[in-house]
Design brief:
With 136 residues, this protein is mainly α. The protein has one domain.
């Protein structure tokens, strides 16, 4: 049964931050490596995003929420919510950059922070909440 105490949520948040940070490194590093090798540029962005989402799902399953990663339903739901997070990230970044006198990088940071919060909530409450018993 999922843990619902504030300590558990803090543990989830810390673990999810670390897993997401590692996944972000995969996304950025993968894009950096793929961009000069794979055309068009958008394909490099998509491939690095998918690889990062796979890393994030695996780390979140095993390390953060302590669930078995071998669930096609859970993996598909995680990926769908990752795409929602990507859309939120891009939308908030665009909105902040176009409506406020912010540098584009600060707007992007706002997009990332918003998407992180939404993704954390979706994964904690929807993807992993009904995942069955925790892994031993």
């Amino acid at each position: 049964m999922p843990r619902d105490t504030s300590d558990s949520m803090r543990d989830y948040a810390l673990g999810y931050t670390l897993a997401g940070g590692l996944a972000a490194g995969v996304d950025i590093g993968g894009f950096h490596w793929l961009a000069p090798r794979l055309e068009p540029l958008l394909l490099s962005a998509v491939v690095s995003f998918v690889l990062a989402a796979m890393v994030n799902y695996t780390l979140s399953s095993l390390w953060v929420y302590r669930r078995c990663w071998r669930s096609l339903r859970r993996a598909a739901l995680f990926m769908a919510f990752a795409c929602v997070g990507l859309a939120v990230n891009a939308g908030v970044t665009w909105w902040l950059a176009s409506t406020l006198p912010l540098h584009a990088t600060l707007a992007k940071a706002g997009g990332v922070a918003t998407a992180f919060g939404i993704n954390f909530w979706m994964n904690t409450r929807l993807v992993f909440a009904r995942a069955g018993r925790p892994q031993a």
